[in-house]
Amino acid sequence: MKKLYTLVIMLVSVSLSAQTVYMPNDIFENVAEGNGWGDGILGNDSVDAVAIAGITNLDLSNLLIDDYTGLEGFTSLTNFDCSNVANQGIANVSLSLLTLSSQLLTFDASGNPLLFCIEVDDTAQANANVSSGLWTIDSHASFSNDCGSAFGCLDPVACNWAPTHSIDTISGSSFVCNYEVTTNFTVDSCDSFSWDGVSYDTTGIYTNTYTAQNGCDSTVNLDLTIRYSTQSTTIDTVCDYLIWNGVQHDSSGTYEYYTNNSVGCDSTAILVLTVNRSSNGSSIVTACDNFTWDGTTYTSSVVDTKTYTNAVGCDSIHILNLTINNSNSSSTTITSCDSFTWDGLIYDSTGTYTNNYTNVDGCDSTHTLNLTITNSTSGSSIVTACDNFTWDGTNYTSSVVDTKIYTNAVGCDSIHILELTINYSQNGSSTVTACDNFTWEGQTVTSSDVLIHTYQNGAVNGCDSTHTLNVIVNYSTNAFDTVVACDSYSVGGATYDTSGVYFYQIPNVAGCDSNIILTLTINYTDTSWNGQPTFNTVQDSACDFYTWNGITYTTSLTSLGIGSHLLEFNTLTNPGCDSTAFQNLYLGATSSDTTTVFTCEDYYWINIYGDTLFQMLTQGTQTYTVTYTNEMGCDSVHVLDITYNEAFIATNSPTDTLACEQFVDLAGNIFTTTVFNQSIVVGQGANGCDSVLNYNIIIAPENRVDTFVTSCDNYVWDRTGTTYTSSTIDSVVFSAYAYFNGGSDSILCDSTIYLNLTINNSVFISESDTVCDSFLWTVNGNTYYSSGTYTQQFITVDGCDSIHELNLVVNYSTSTYLVDEGCDNEEYTWITADSSYVINSTGLYVVTSVNSSGCIHTDSLDLTINPSFSDSLTPFNPGPQCDFYHWPVGNSGQGVTYIGANASGLKASYFTNVHGCDSVHWLDLTIEETQNYSYSNVACDNFNWQLAGTSYSNSGTYIFTEFTPLAGCTITHTLNLTINNSSADSVSVVACDSYEWDGVTYDTTGVYTNTYTDINGCDSIVTLNLTINYSSVDTVTVQDCDFYVWDGVTYDTTGLYTNIYPDVNGCDSIVTLDLSIINTNNTTVFDTACHTYTWALASQNYDSTGVYPYLGNINACGGIDTVFLNLVVYERVYGSGSVTVCNSYEWNGNAYTSTGTYVDTLISSVGCDSVATLNLTVNYNDTSSVLVSHNQHCDTLFIENDALTSDGIHYVLANQPTVNGCDSIIIVDLILNYTQYIYDTITVCGEFYWYSDTITQSGTHSQIFLGNDSTICDVIEILEVTVVPEYTDIVDTQVHCDSYTWIDGITYTSSNNSATYTYQTNAGCDSTIHLDLTINYSSSPNSSSIDTLCVPYLWGTVVIDSVGTFTETFVNTVGCDSIHTVTINYVLHKTEGTSTITACDMFEWDNTTYTASGSYYNTYTNSVGCDSVHTLILTIINSNSGSSSETSCEFYVWNGDTLSTTGLYTDTLTNIDGCDSVATLNLVVLSVPKSTETHITCDPFTWIVDGQTYTSSGMYSYTYVNGATNGCDSIVTLDLTINDAPTVVGTQIAGSLTWEAIITDGVAPFIVTWVDPNAFTSNLSPLEPITSGWFSVYVEDANGCISNTDSFYVDLPPTSILFEDIKELNIYPNPTSDYINLEFTSKNTSDYNVRIISSNGNEVYIKELINFSGNYKSSIDLSRFAKGNYLIEISNSKDKIYKKLLLQ
Question: What is the Cα–Cα distance from 866 to 914, expressed in whole angstroms?
């Protein structure tokens, strides 16, 4: 720094953050205030730093300013004038030096005769500036880099400068030294001051004596004040950059800033900066329709930005470059026949179908098909014809399936299929051969003949069949034959082995019967004849035995046995045959039996031959024996014991009984014909024989009626209402009365009517044809010119109708001729019958097509194309306009005024030119508006309005005006500003151990600062002055028996216990009791037993419940460990009981059925035996009562409380029990009789008479016929009747047009309400329908003609687009057809035009303003007088505006600008559609709170803020991300001083039993703490041990640093003192909180001292005992002493005893 008396003008950069600049010279300050650069207060030596920083020109000429301090604030100074400073009449101006920067463009220091040296940074540049005339100085002045070294003494007066010629820089004259001069001057300097080669760095008065050039002495006294420079260091971590003292730093490093401190010396600020980087990322996304990013859904393309926080706590800015492509959709309407193929799929039903594709942008392209399926129609005719058939002009002579395709009413194919079967008339012949005669088709011949017969439709194919039959008649013959044969003879399929006369037939040569009579003689073969035996047998039989040829055979199994046998024996030779005799023998046996017979009628005993052996005719019992031959041919003796009871024989006169078809009596006899005076069985008598009565059995025979019917197509049988469509035989059964005895007797029997039905079919042939103009029908040769249905009727060979029907559609050829005009700016579309053509040139056009009817249609167009007008390529542009613009040709030439910026854009005005074509004028219009904006904002301390570029520190209303860029319209901004001020406060807190403040825990004394946000949202800075006091901790170890009492609480469990006491600072003093409890061990054993218990531990047996002790060991405390047995003994339980039951009893899972005494051993609930005895008495139910009831009850037998409804054995509980209390059960053997139910069903017409009832309603009816007793039950007859009503009042109301054919087949052409029709229902009942018919009439056809029509034109459902005749059917007032025909003679065409426009916000078209996208239509009149429809396809893209509110810490980057102050900002952008996008930002910039903690500690130091451990002094910082209450980062700085801890070694002093602490490092004074083997502490040094053992020592220095702990062992030599004088020393309670009791015994008289010594060696209690002996007891009050360790010492001249005491 330069000496303060030297004027220094140093132009350097200074921080504008200092609000003022120091300017001590009042003249200099007044200049600044007068130019508005000051702070508004004169004489306070300060000016506005911001105001002077921008000044470039400074004129201080002619002003006596001797101190230019403050000039350094003019950082932009380029022109400086300080000339003529000394011309103010002051001879001694202390202006000696100027220090300048060569940056000045102009500098004038002339007119200053005392200014010799000007100090600059670049002398060469300064001299160059003088040479070039930019700078002006006096000739005696010069430039130097260090004026102090160049001139030495700077004061010419003090130095007695008397310049000689050698120093002629002042003048040419010489000075004369008349006296010596003493000069005093005062200097303020920073850090040091160099004067005359000597450097001074302390304040003081210094003197130097000089010799001037004239030889005079010059004494200079220097009054020197030394002031000191300062230095500070800031550690900071920021994101991206930090603006520090006006300079932006964007990389990590250490930066320095130099300024003046409060005493005017250098202040060096050091910034240790860490710069973390914000991260930037971008995503380029293309999506369809919409895209969701971080919770925001976008539906249009956009470039958007989102800011996050990255891993280092900085902004992570992500830019989304989003392109939204839109899905598109389209639809197609198609009408197709039967099916339609779309995108590979076939659709066959009407509907709306959708397919999704991908468009060129990769999005969905949805195409919708509106499909109408009109169906082709088909019909078929199945025709069978004979020989040939003609169809639709084609004659077929053979069977075929043929198809013809027409067009139906919906334009689709109408396919008609003919399935034709051609059968042929048949002519055939055959030959038949017959015997004797032959009958064919009713003709009988007895001789050969030729027969001919023709069958009408008789062939199987329905055609005529003529057949010729050649009949050959042959005849049968008769013959006789006589034969002699051996053994047997076979002829005519039969074999004979006996002689006789036989008859048989064989075919004769003609194939007819030949009747043969055979006379046969059989001889038998002899075995000797010809050596070959012939087997012939003679049948024989015998009983019991048989003798043949001397051999006897018996029934014994050892012989033949019973049965058939073949016996062989050689016989004599018969005539003519050789024979061996074989006897065919049946050997039987005789038999006998006895038969006992009971009979009620004459009994005839008949043998197997049918012979009556015995006839019993009278009552009584007899025995009869008869012998007859049994089935073996042997005697069979039969004995008959017979008892004959006579049946009851009828004697009554015959009674009539009637039956249908047959009658069955009780004996099962069936009668199918009428029998008179017939005896029949009607029951059984008492003797078991039948009871017979006489009846006349009258049988009504089956009633059968056959009906034969032939019908065409179908037949309705009135009996059943059934319709038959094919031949059949059917029947119906109905009830009818059969009458007897002249009608006096009757019976209702079934009658059957049989229908023999033959159905012949009518033939119906239908054909359909569609033709153009006319049709020739080959069936009848007629030509038809109009559509219709035509028939030709025939009769088949069966007499049924044959109808040939023609469904004819006649369509007509059509044509149109059109003369029309068009315009060249519109496409002229010519719509023909089946297509459309776009035509752009004049000409005559002709096309032909097929019309909707399939006939030829001809369209002709005579077209003229006229020109139009448009200036769309060069629209009129009037230039930018303010607020409005009037366009005189707008609104189709009527003029229009556009108002506001929203009216800007492309405008169109449509008109019709002379040719009648649509024409348009275009206007390209830009309108800007005068605008007024108002903002309201609230800020803290000051507000920077970026829009106006001005900062405000006071509330108020401020206005800023600007202009629009194109038209220069005024934009006025008004700011309503409220300024709130920040606040500051402080609080002092004293806490123990630590203190939590605003979520941070502090454990050291210090000053801490937090910044909050007040109710106005401004900073509220609170300073905490914190004092931390610390709690103390100690531990006491105790061992005791069973329990220990501490501080009034009894503890009986080993453990660590803690009590907390307040110390002198009010903090906790924590004492921990480490307690060991030795317990006497008492244990209890619990057990149970059954009956008795053996305890092994005590070797004792116990048989009763109780508690039994067992004494064990004696423990360390003298107690006896005891085990107790807590025993429960359960006794055996005995129980008995008596029970009486019926039948059986279940006990403990066993079933007992007899009386007795039973014993069971159980397990009780406690697991012991329980003996139970049961005395059981078992009684039984009584089942002796038996009831037999056969055929005595109907349906149900009621007995006791039961109702029996079924046959069988039943067990019924009697109402009264037996005498022993058990059930009495009745066994019922039951056979019931049952009520008889007869069911029948009948359907009748109208009403029905049944017995005495007249039935008119359908339903179920019944009759009950009561039985005469319990053996003959009721008969109930149930009849289900369906009554079919006969309707006579049915009215059929019909309304029709022109005519109506009713069900009676009559076609009515006028209204009718009198016709009736009677028909039979399905039930065969008559119903009558009355007709109520109204006939309305169609209107007469109407026709009209129109000369000229604008087309296309919709007439009804007909679209008219050309000349021609058109017909449409309407509905008249009565709902019938009204046919109208119109003829169009000449057509003119409507025209169309389309404009596609995209505009911002709005668009005006034809004097209408549109603000929404869409299609809009206007209709004009074209040149030919028809409508000209113009379509505007408009897309409106909206300008958008958005506002956002952001709160940021320190600064905020918006659209590339860095904003560091709270304010309201606006920016106008262009959106992706080219329209304005106005963005408004309401920004609040929050300050980042910073605080500093100062800690002085011993190593190491763990900072709770960041959890880091520091081992060296320094400045450390930590940033709480979003840690401040305003959400910003909170920066805490640690100013840490770590002092070195001392080191200690315990050393024995040579030649003594004392120890001293050798200490190195640390800061004195030191506190030394000794710890003895009993953990007793002392601060007395040196240490004098009183016992041997391990000792330790540690120290604490002045900084509170604790040393290491050094341990050493003390081994004291043995002593002759046996402590015989002091005995039984006892101190209690110990520990204690207030007093102790001291007891000891002195055996000898002595002087004693009792002392209590604190742990720091202070003697707190002393008592002397003089000539004391015996027992001593004293209570000492310790409540006034501090808590801690103490030592009690009792000593005399010989003994010294110590006890440790804990005061808590």
Answer: 10
Nearest to 520 by CA among 497, 492, 493, 494: 497
Whole-number pLDDT of residue 179: 41
**What are 938-976's pLDDT values in tens digits?**
888 888 888 788 888 888 998 988 888 888 888 888 989
Q: Is the pLDDT of residue 436 over 60?
A: yes
Q: List helix spans (H) across 1276-1422.
A: none
Q: Is the pTM of this model over 0.70?
A: no
Backbone angles phi, psi at 344, to 5 degrees: 85, -5
Identify the helix (H) or strand (E) that includes residue 28: helix 26-34
DSSP line for 303-347: EEEEEEE-TTSSEEEEEEEEEEEPPEEEEEEEEEES-EEETTEEE
Confidence of residue 1054 (pLDDT cuts 50, 70, 90): confident
Number of H helices, E strands in the chain: 5, 151
- In one-letter notation, the amino acid at residue 977 is L
Q: What is the dihedral of CA 1680, 1682, 1686, 1689, to 10 degrees?
A: -30
Residue 1113: the pLDDT is 67
Write down the pLDDT at residue 182: 64
In angstroms, the CA 520 to CA 630 distance is: 34
pLDDT mean over 396-401: 83
Return d(Cα 671, Cα 682) in angstroms, integer. 15
- pLDDT confidence tier of residue 535, bands split at 50, 70 and 90: very low
- Average pLDDT of every residue of the chain: 78
Whole-angstrom distance, CA of residue 766 vs CA of residue 753: 39
**Residue 359 C-beta-side C-alpha neighbours within 13 Å:** 15
CA pseudo-torsion sign 1682, 1686, 1690, 1692:
negative
Closest to 48 in 3D by CA, of 92, 14, 79 = 14
Spatial separation of the C-alpha atoms in residues 1392 and 1429, rounded to whole Å: 5
Give Cα separations from 1327 to 1308, 1318, 1319, 1323 (angstroms): 22, 6, 6, 11
Which DSSP state fits 967? T
292-301 pLDDT tens trace = 888 889 888 8
Indicate the burial class of 965 (C-beta count within 10 angstroms; 0-12, 13-18, 19 or more): exposed
CA 582 – CA 567 distance, rounded (Å): 5
Alpha carbon distances (Å) from 1500 to 1492, 1540, 1598: 20, 10, 17
How much is the pLDDT for 153? 45
Could you give the angle at the alpha carbon of 98 between the alpha carbons of 93 and 103, nearest 5°?
150
DSSP reduced 3-state for 1517: strand
Read out DSSP for 440-459?
Answer: ETTEEESS-EEEEEEETT-S
With beta carbons less than 8 A apart as the criterion, state whether 1557 and 1567 touch.
no
User: Beta strand pairing status for 247-249 and 242-244?
Assistant: antiparallel
Check if the beta carbon of residue 1369 is closer than 8 Å to that of residue 1376. no
Helix (H) or strand (E) holding 128: helix 123-131
- CB count, 10 Å around CB of 591? 14
Which distant-in-sequence residues (6+ apart) come within 8 Å of 1222 by Cβ?
1142, 1143, 1179, 1180, 1181, 1182
Token pair of 493 as six digits: 């399929």
Query: Phi/psi of residue 73, each to 5°?
Result: -75, -15
pLDDT, tens digit, 9 for 90 and up, residues 1468-1478: 777 777 787 78
Calpha distance 888→921 (Å, rounded): 11
Q: Is the distance from CB of 1087 to CB of 1104 less than 8 angstroms?
A: no
Classify residue 1117 as left (phi > 0), alpha (psi -120 to 50) or beta: alpha
In angstroms and rounded to an integer, the radius of gyration of the C-alpha atoms of the chain is: 75
What are the backbone dihedrals phi and psi of residue 901, each rounded to the nearest 5 degrees, phi first? -65, -30
Tokens standing for 520?
């046969």
CB 1452 within 8 A of CB 1485: yes
Count of residues making up the chain = 1704
For CA atoms 562, 568, 573, 575, the dihedral sign is positive
Distance of CA 429 to the CA centre of its chain: 87
